[in-house]
Amino acid sequence: MTHPSPTEPAPGSDVADLDTPQLLVDLDVVDGNVRRMFAAARGRGVRVRVHFKSLKCTGLARHVAAAGPDGFAAAKLNEAEALADAGVTDILLANQVVGLHKLRRAARLARRADLIVCVDDADNARALSAAAVAEGTQIRALVEVDIGMARCGVPPGAAAVELAQTVAALPGLRFYGLQGYDGHLQMLPDYESRQAQSLAGAEALADTRRQVERAGLPVALVTGGGTGTWEFAAAVPGVTEVQPGSFVIMDAAYHKVRPEFGCALSVRAAVVSRRPGQYVLDAGSKAISRDFGTPEIKGRPGDRVLRLNEEHTIVAADGAVPAVGEAAEVLPAHCCATMNLHRACAAVRGGRVEAVWPIECSGRYD
To answer: Does residue 191 form part of some domain?
Structure first.
């Protein structure tokens, strides 16, 4: 059972008065990031589908939705269900749905949302078809194409065409297009290498589209790209949509390859111990994800995080060591996984709490 914090912030509170650790989302930064991404992508003629896996919070999704995205993507079924509960109708489940229980859930979800699901296996497509028929629904299906990540997807070309033909013939499914995601390139630090590899993958995806169309199947959607590669996907004719998510809130690792987007996500922590040249914060790996590298301290660029323990972050100070009780904001190295560690976030603007949003999908893996 999850218990609410006895010191959960209230709207109108001053950020300086909040208990620690506290997850913060700066709405001014979010709004700037969203405006920048939407303008840039649409200027290149592609749709922007915001990936909810980075947000996990329907309050934040509703806030982003006010800017008019072209739908949302989800990584897992629970995220797609949460989006539908929040009133989102155009939902891409950018993953495969396997197993009787999840297939039934997906088919039921299609009753209240215009759902798109990815497939990369003919038998799984048949199982999804059977579930849709049993529930009296129709599901749009994308064939996922492996464009270099070596995770999910069929090879580009003939294998994708064959699976598309199988899907198109199945009742309860509507073949809708293709997905190709280059997740292995998102944080590649060398821009030219990231660009070249991402363009090659997007070209393979677009070429597969042409082969599918030559086989007589219309292709409504070709989607891919992320925060680190969206503009390369958008540059290839035949790709119609990009699906970035981390750009909304960002993190210290992504910011190194995408400095045009600000870090809206931070964990406010307090100094609990100090010594010459070093201080310790009251937030550790239970509150700050470290799987993509080392967090950073906001406003103290010379400080260096030495390590994270479960309840502590140990920092080498560059200059004056902050006093015990003084607050610092930690910029996580992975925003998606940090959102997954918290049950709620304080949405702040101008140093005050504007809203407190539950993170409904944190801790979920279904």
So the answer is: yes
